[in-house]
Amino acid sequence: MLVIIGYIVVLGSVFGGFAMAGGHLGALWQPLELLMIGGGAGGAFFVGNNGKAIKATLKDLPTVLKGSKYNKETYMELMALMYELLGKVRKEGLMSIEGDVENPHESPVFAKYPKILADHHVVEFMTDYLRIMVSGNLNAMEIENLMDVEIETHHHEAMVSSHVIAKVGDGMPAFGIVAAVMGVVHTMESVGIPPAELGILIAHALVGTFLGILLAYGFVGPLAGLLEQKAEESGKMFQAIKVVLLANLNGYAPAMAVEFGRKVLNSTDRPGFAELEEHVKQKR
After folding, report:
1. Bridge-partner residues for 193, per DSSP?
2. What predicted TM-score, i.e. pTM, was given to this entire model?
């Protein structure tokens, strides 16, 4: 919704200001210029990226119209799930969570936390390291290094779509210039027509530069920034899981381990200590 509102503000400000200054909006309607800019940028998108990057970008683009799924409620569910699993380990031993780890979608523990269970990457990350804990022979330092490498890999993959869109946005002003130059070429070959008609052709040519810059900085560029923010948000889940599990490996009780994880979260989404404690008690 915020994306749509932002686009409306951009269009209203730019075109409204132009109209208020006495400009004729009809002069800006140049579908062929849009075809050259959009087609050129689209073609460059496919040329400059491999199949994985294209697939990831097309998959992530629809998410910009949705709000963030990583909020206080999601983080509270994550902390409550971690607390319950580690509490079960503390009371019944590591083997007690083997069934939960091997089949999380059939686990009564995971079933209490649908928001977490719906996130395949988070569930896989958590269960993989819990499975390592169950197998024994743990070295906390080695596990931490492995977690760091996996989190870095996830972050790199999550940032692919934002980098791709940013490059497309960076190229749009250039494609706008290409469209403008094509318009100038058409104008120059029309020399000899009345000055009024020549002026119209020049105006049409300049619209290409205008559209390229507007699309780059008003539409495409902001999408890249939004996708980057979403990627950063998703990484917090993995960092919180890492801190909680490492705290548990170092001998901290589940309540304290979860508190360590709570401290990793952004202050805007971080639940208070008492708030999280009450939520955990309700879920048990």
Report:
1. 191
2. 0.82
